Amino acid sequence: MVQINNVLVLALCGAILVACVGMLVYILPSLCFFMPFRWEEERYTDGVKWKFLEHKGPVFAPPYDPLPSNVKFYYDGKHMKLSSTAEEVATFFAKMLDHEYTTKEVFRKNFYKDWRKEMTSEEKSKITDLNKCDFSEMSEYFKAQSEARKAMTKEDKQKIKEENERILQEYGFCIMDNHKERIANFRIEPPGLFRGRGDHPKMGMLKRRIRSEDIIVNCSKDSKHPKPPPGTKWKEVRHDNKVTWLVSWTENIQGSIKYIMLNPSSRIKGEKDWQKYETARRLKKCVERIRAQYRDDWKSKEMRIRQRAVALYFIDKLALRAGNEKEEGETADTVGCCSLRVEHLTLHQEMGGQEYVVEFDFLGKDSIRYYNKVPVEKRVFKNLQLFMEDKEPEDDLFDRLNTSILNKHLQELMDGLTAKVFRTYNASITLQQQLNEITNSEDNVPAKILSYNRANRAVAILCNHQRAPPKTFEKSMQNLQTKIDAKKEQLADAKRELKMSKYLAVESKKKAVQRIEEQLMKLEVQATDREENKQIALGTSKLNYLDPRISIAWCKKFGIQIEKIYNKTQREKFAWAIDMAGKDFQF
DNA sequence: ACAACCACTTAGTACCGGTGCA
DNA sequence: TGCACCGGTACTAAGTGGTTGT
């Protein structure tokens, strides 16, 4: 692929017109004949996303491969041959046997119920108790299979790799408006047992196999339409250029729609990403006005206005998510700002020498716990007392508010403003401020990168991006410490030698000491970084919340290679920004 | 007004394969 | 040469927010 730098004039959809910008663009030589420059293409209005779209359709999950006859299932201690359909579902369970959740009541109940639906009537009458089912031979068989896969010869592994590459080349790309673009997820999700996050009421349910007849294909009329597998038909072929997806189907657990879409490196995703940060930068210009407004609204005589103002304060100060309502019993019980309940807050008139402290404790997205003690203004505190008065723990804190009301209000304050823009804005501005504050131009490269990671970490903490500490964390910390100790010893040795050699090769020994000192420093920095990162995930904020131009400008300003901050995939995703941002870019 | 639906972004985790070390 | 480790990636669930229909 050839990379070409140039100026792209983009008029963004609708009424919003954004200024001209430089943008790095990938051009496919083979397609250059038709459309030599991406930036010569017109921008679409009225929600049109493309003019031409051609692709090969999805890759289906491989069909079920029945167990060999020596791998047996036992019911109540006795061998029982299962029908192919029932056997397949049983293997899903067998593959998860080592996981804790196969012991959970809800998981077992849901699985058993759905499994029975797949049984023949004979099987249904025989199998009446999940506890009497013995999947252990199946489980052992799959473990052996995975061992065998690991032990394959280089040649066999190479063959598989080549086959995957072939599939990727055939199905992994599409043509959208004269550009070959990478598809993000061209494989249909295979059948299996649903495992939601946290305490999910539907865990263990059977996620059914997707067939051609479930698939809606979206492509342009004048494209070569993808062919369904022989003997099958698509549910529908449509030509909707107001959407970006290539393929969709309805999933059976929540009844929601799943999509095949393009990779983040694609034009369509990149432009949207850029737009998102431009909206956040527009918020920067008016955020003080909005803050003054909501502070004023804390005093409103209308309860709904006060609630709106306090919620917005939380969203702004704590980077909480909006908090849409959710259907009870359909998903795990998690909340965001607007859906907070009385039970999620504890008010402390005084705590640890601070006045008006609010203690938050709730499960947010992905059932990640949000726990925080925050001193708030007296007015906020008094309002919260008011909102909580005469309510049960399970009552909504903001009973006069929801995300729709809040977003309508925000829309009036700034064009394109919604609750999530505050998260983007606060994340990016925090990175910018932290970098400005803590980067020391005297530092060497590893120390500067430590500063960067610390700035990134401040954002991840703000956004509550947590991770389970890696299973091998303690061990890998220990290993690193061992390395550090060894390096220290080596340094001591080198210093001793330098002292001894008054005349011979002093210069080279000085250099050796210096080199070892540098290595030691690098290791120590690495240890600090890793320790501070134990329970914090940096990836999510880096990928979704931090305007990449901030990081790129920082790299340029301090002479750090961009490769140290962004890996290959990330550089592809942020190609637009890499070209756009000079060393003086400020968010 | 609000519920249902749809499209799209954001999210953590499991897994894989390359790398570097004993 | 085998193995641990780590970064990268695939996967897919879980959010947000707009639109549509009643």
Automatic annotation (TrEMBL):
| UniProt-listed GO biological process terms | chromosome segregation; DNA replication; DNA topological change; rhythmic process
* Keyword Transmembrane helix set for record: yes
Signal peptide residues are: none
- One function term, GO molecular function aspect: DNA binding
Domain of life (superkingdom): Eukaryota
| Keyword presence, Transmembrane helix | yes
Where in the numbering of this chain does the DNA topoisomerase I eukaryotic-type domain appear?
A: 193-559
**InterPro entries in the record, alphabetically?**
DNA_brk_join_enz, DNA_topo_DNA_db_N_dom1, DNA_topo_DNA_db_N_dom2, TopoI, TopoI_C_dom, TopoI_cat_a-hlx-sub_euk, TopoI_cat_a/b-sub_euk, TopoI_cat_euk
Q: Where are the transmembrane segments?
A: 7-28
Q: Name one GO cellular component term.
A: chromosome
State the EC number(s). 5.6.2.1
Its main subcellular localisation, reduced to a broad class, is nucleus
Q: Where in the cell is it found?
A: Nucleus
Which residues are responsible for catalysis? 545 (o-(3'-phospho-dna)-tyrosine intermediate)
Coiled coil ranges: 143-170, 477-533
Name of one Pfam family that matches:
Topo_C_assoc
What reaction does this catalyse? ATP-independent breakage of single-stranded DNA, followed by passage and rejoining
Q: What class of enzyme is it?
A: isomerase
Which terms are listed as keywords in the entry?
A: Biological rhythms, Coiled coil, DNA-binding, Isomerase, Membrane, Nucleus, Topoisomerase, Transmembrane, Transmembrane helix
The UniProt family comment states: Belongs to the type IB topoisomerase family.
The entry's function note states: Releases the supercoiling and torsional tension of DNA introduced during the DNA replication and transcription by transiently cleaving and rejoining one strand of the DNA duplex. Introduces a single-strand break via transesterification at the specific target site 5'-[CT]CCTTp site in duplex DNA. The scissile phosphodiester is attacked by the catalytic tyrosine of the enzyme, resulting in the formation of a DNA-(3'-phosphotyrosyl)-enzyme intermediate and the expulsion of a 5'-OH DNA strand. The free DNA strand then undergoes passage around the unbroken strand thus removing DNA supercoils.
| PANTHER family per UniProt | DNA TOPOISOMERASE 1, DNA TOPOISOMERASE I
Q: What is this protein called?
A: DNA topoisomerase I
Organism of this sequence: Sinocyclocheilus rhinocerous
